[in-house]
């Protein structure tokens, strides 16, 4: 399965320039667990996403714009089969923001995770100083569940995180 409903598809090696462009955007610096500073790094990032998918441990998809070009990422990771849970994350290049693509991608991903991966609960979190990410989560049907105080640390500063979740039984 390489594509989900025309809006999401597996990352391809030829998408590495998109990943590199994303990693170079100032707002995106914290979205990558490893440094993506070169095209080789971006190619390795894509290869790792494909390896995760093949192993069934995480599922990352390129978010496509109306022209079919990759403009972002949506993923379910930390898949825990016993409790049927997963962690959702998403990012978009600046040119893809403000069009509803992230929320739409999260809705499609959630439906796929519930139906194809038999997950029951999907969670996500965002820094409280990121209202755009909150709007994406709520629009995608993820209910607010609470605040995790000082959960993340970047550059010596701690950030509170708001937790959201969506269940397979949610409307």
What labels describe this entry?
single chain; 171 residues; alpha+beta; Aminopeptidase; globular
Provide a descriptive summary of the structure in words:
This is RimJ/RimL family protein N-acetyltransferase. InterPro entries: Acyl_CoA_acyltransferase, GNAT_dom, Ribosomal_N-acetyltransferase. Keywords: Transferase. The chain has four helices and eight strands, in the order ββααβββαβαββ. The protein is of the alpha+beta class and 171 residues long. It has an eight-stranded mixed sheet, with helices on both faces. The longest helix is centred in the first third of the chain and has 17 residues, at 39-55. The two termini are 26 Å apart.
Helix content: 25-40%
Structural class category: alpha+beta
Number of domains: 1
The CATH class turns out to be Alpha Beta
Largest sheet: 8 strands, mixed
- Rg value: 15 Å
Count of helical regions: 4
State mean pLDDT (0 to 100 scale): 94
What sequence of helices (H) and strands (E) makes up the elements? Answer: EEHHEEEHEHEE
CATH topology: Aminopeptidase
CATH architecture tag: 3-Layer(aba) Sandwich
User: Could you tell me how far the N terminus lies from the C terminus, measured between alpha carbons in angstroms?
Assistant: 26 Å
- Order of the strands making up the biggest sheet: 1-2-3-4-5-6-8-7
Query: What is the overall shape?
Result: globular
State the fourth-level CATH superfamily. Answer: Gcn5-related N-acetyltransferase (GNAT)
Strand content: 35-45%
Number of strands: 8
Contiguous low-pLDDT stretches (5 residues minimum) are none
Protein name: RimJ/RimL family protein N-acetyltransferase
GO molecular function: protein N-terminal-serine acetyltransferase activity; protein-N-terminal-alanine acetyltransferase activity
Organism: Amycolatopsis endophytica
Keywords: Transferase
């Amino acid at each position: 399965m390489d594509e989900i409903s025309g809006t999401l598809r597996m990352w391809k090696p030829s998408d590495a320039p998109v990943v590199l462009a994303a990693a170079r955007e100032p707002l995106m610096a914290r979205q990558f667990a490893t440094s993506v500073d070169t095209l080789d790094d971006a190619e390795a990032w894509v290869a790792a996403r494909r390896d995760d998918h093949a192993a069934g441990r995480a599922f990352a998809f390129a978010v496509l714009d109306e022209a079919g070009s990759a403009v972002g990422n949506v993923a379910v990771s930390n898949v825990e089969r016993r409790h049927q849970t997963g962690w959702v994350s998403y990012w978009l290049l600046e040119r893809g923001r403000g069009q509803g693509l992230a929320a739409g991608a999260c809705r499609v991903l959630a439906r796929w995770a519930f139906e194809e991966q038999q997950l029951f609960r999907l969670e996500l979190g965002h820094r409280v100083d990121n209202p755009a990410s909150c709007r994406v989560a709520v629009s995608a049907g993820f209910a607010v569940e609470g605040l995790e105080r000082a959960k993340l640390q970047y550059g010596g500063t701690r950030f509170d995180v708001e937790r959201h979740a969506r269940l397979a039984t949610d409307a």
